[in-house]
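Reminder to self: keep the SMILES exactly as supplied, no canonicalising. Ligand is 2-acetamido-2-deoxy-beta-D-glucopyranose.
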Amino acid sequence: MRFFLLAVGLLAGFFIVHGQNYVNVPLKSNITQVNPMLGLVFWDDNYFTPYTAYSLEYLYLPVNNLVIGRINGTLQYNWTYLENRLNNIANRGHQAIFRPYYEYPGDPTAVPAFLKNISGYKGQVYSGEEFMDWRSADLRILHLDMHTQFALRYDSDPRVFCVQTGFGFWSEYHISGGPNLQLGYNFPSGEFQLEAITLITSLFKNTPVLYSIDIADIYDNWCPVFQNISNLPFGSFDDSSFANDTQDWNDGNKQRLGWWTRYQNQPLGGEIAYEDNVQQHALDMNGPEGVPLPTYVANYHYTFLIANDQTTYQYNGPLTQVQRIQQV
Ligand SMILES: *[C@@H]1O[C@H](CO)[C@@H](O)[C@H](O)[C@H]1NC(C)=O
Ligand SMILES: *[C@@H]1O[C@H](CO)[C@@H](O)[C@H](O)[C@H]1NC(C)=O
Ligand SMILES: *[C@@H]1O[C@H](CO)[C@@H](O)[C@H](O)[C@H]1NC(C)=O
Ligand SMILES: *[C@@H]1O[C@H](CO)[C@@H](O)[C@H](O)[C@H]1NC(C)=O
Ligand SMILES: *[C@@H]1O[C@H](CO)[C@@H](O)[C@H](O)[C@H]1NC(C)=O
Ligand SMILES: *[C@@H]1O[C@H](CO)[C@@H](O)[C@H](O)[C@H]1NC(C)=O
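Structure tokens returned for the bound complex:
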């Protein structure tokens, strides 16, 4: 499988991925050392040289930059924004991780203006911020159609390593700190979640789809159909990775996701947490909180970790930070 080759490449550093000229290479089974450093991911607006220091770039896709209208019932897409970014990433010899989202705290929802304008659509306002209105059948149709278009265009596209998707803040599958959960209103109903995840995971046959670990949060119940979807073929991501504070809670979700076997078939990723000094000291020889990054990555079988600010820090060793980032 394509992603698995990449994952092994990330860990062993024995080939360079060229996004536009992707070739399958035979696996070398003799991997004797973990190399997570090429699995560090930078946002595509923060790229740096040498490009060989990393393999993956990340971008957020606000849904209203893509879906721009509806004519006679057919949704209208503008692919330019996403295509330009994927091409730029591929031109640097990298693959993309992209994540469509509707909700980004502090911003208006990225629901397209034409859809917000449809009679009856009215998101709940909480603390001055508008949340989603999943009562809207138009919105639900858009969600399914958009992911169908993604699969048609990007499943097996060598520019794309994986798609992260979901609902809620940053598509991280929660609205923590927002209004009380109202399934079917400010968050999709369980029935619709089941329909969407079943469809999306069936459409992507080669390019992996990843859902946040919050999908397995049984306490807040964001996904009341978790039992029904947990065996579907999706990878996962933890955007508060590597912090001791949240590790126990995250581990519970990971346990329910079958994280320690899921990695055999799907990529598992995340972002190094912006908590305490975890980002600042992530590459220190002994890690930020007593565990070195390579040990942590090996324990959790991570394929990649978003680490966007790493070039602005200096780890506590003799190499430059970029040398450390690309260190094999
Ligand atoms: C695996 O790699 C190690 C270290 O490079 C080497 O000593 C060993 O002979 C290799 N084993 C095989 C089966 O290639
Ligand atoms: C929409 O459908 C109507 C009726 O079929 C047709 O007359 C009209 O040209 C269509 N409009 C567009 C923009 O396709
Ligand atoms: C499509 O998106 C591009 C890039 O964001 C923008 O420049 C262009 O005006 C858009 N086209 C339409 C028809 O909205
Ligand atoms: C909103 O609806 C009005 C009335 O139907 C229409 O004139 C306007 O173009 C719509 N705006 C958008 C962004 O769809
Ligand atoms: C989800 O799975 C449970 C237990 O297997 C079952 O009782 C329930 O009907 C399923 N829900 C849906 C919506 O399929
Ligand atoms: C973080 O956890 C590791 C083991 O999981 C432990 O060795 C270390 O002391 C902890 N660090 C802090 C600062 O709590």
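Points to follow up:
Residues 2-325 form a domain with the TIM Barrel fold (CATH 3.20.20).
Residues 194, 225, 227-228 surround 2-acetamido-2-deoxy-beta-D-glucopyranose (ligand 5) (CB under 6 Å).
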